[in-house]
Specification:
It is built from 4 helices and no strands. It has 106 residues and is mostly helical. The protein has one domain. α2 runs antiparallel to α4. The chain starts with a helix and ends in a 14-residue tail after the last helix. Mean pLDDT is 89; it is low at 98-106.
């Protein structure tokens, strides 16, 4: 095997490991959103995506920040408003569910 091929494979393995690590925290954050709303998985995914886009933050970083709130860390200021808006929008789409006050800010 040539050195170029080894380098390419090593890079691919590193990227796959990062993707697996990111996936775990994203799944945790998605579950948190599902519990907060409550809403189905696809809607929770959209809350994370919307927060990522409007907070100008990578989705895996949004997820990590949200999961960190379960350990007592506040949601970063740049994500508070986008997350709150996305969560309110998701809750408004759930029949019989009223909008809530500022989640994830504690």
């Amino acid at each position: 095997m040539k050195q170029n091929e080894l380098t390419r494979l090593a890079t691919e393995v590193t990227q796959l490991r990062q993707a697996l690590d990111s996936r775990a925290v994203i799944d945790q954050a998605q579950g948190m959103v599902m519990a907060l709303t409550p809403c189905p998985a696809e809607q929770a995914w959209q809350v994370l995506v919307e927060t990522s886009q409007h907070g100008n933050t990578k989705l895996r970083d949004v997820a990590a920040a949200l999961v960190a709130t379960a350990h007592g860390r506040p949601l970063p200021p740049r994500l508070r408003a986008p997350f709150t808006r996305a969560l309110h929008r998701a809750r408004a789409d759930v029949p019989g569910r009223a909008a809530c006050s500022r989640p994830g800010t504690g």
